[in-house]
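Hey team,

Filing this mostly as a record. A colleague (T.K.) asked me to run one chain through the structure pipeline before their review meeting, and I want the input and output archived in the tracker in case anyone asks later how it was produced. No errors, nothing strange. Just documentation.

Input sequence:
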Amino acid sequence: MFALNHRFLILFMICMIYLLFSVMLVYKEDGILSAVAQSTFLLFWSYVGHVAAHYISLVYPINKMNTHISIHHSETELPRILDLGSESVNNFFGFFCLYLFQELSGYKFLNLKLILYSAFLYIGVHIFYYSLTNTNYHKIHHEYEFYNYSPEIFDFIFNTRKNDEQYENIFVFYEAFPALISYYIVKQIFENNKGIVELKK
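Output structure:
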């Protein structure tokens, strides 16, 4: 029990790091409360979107159209780099669809900076940490696709964590470093590209 509580506290700390960088991106223009609310929603979206991607893919032909299932979760002969490249594109559009929804509906509730940050962060953790280092937590998700969606803290909260397995210790640096990189990527995009700055308004 102590080990689980300790792990949960580490996961909570990692989430606070994620939220800190995202809030730093927009608090001056959106205000702190709005920045926290948007950031929290997008962090939760990274979990619920992943859950939804698996459940809607129980239906044909969505299971074939969704490359997260048809390629990333399948035994294919596709080279690893193409598999992860396809998954990165899939992960990106899993967040960018929120921007497209806002544009089509006219209802804007998320800052484009945060949408991009969340997409890059998800790709960073999922591809460059979980997949390339082949963590046991993520490996079990591929063996039992309705468990261990991540972020792991939400698996704890919503009981989708496979608790009867052994997991390696969490390396905070590996989980948090993508947040730093994502923060600076988004800052550079908006500082160096006036077109995107206008796009978000």
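Quick notes for T.K.: The two ends are 48 Å apart (CA to CA). Residues 14 and 176 are 6 Å apart (CA to CA).
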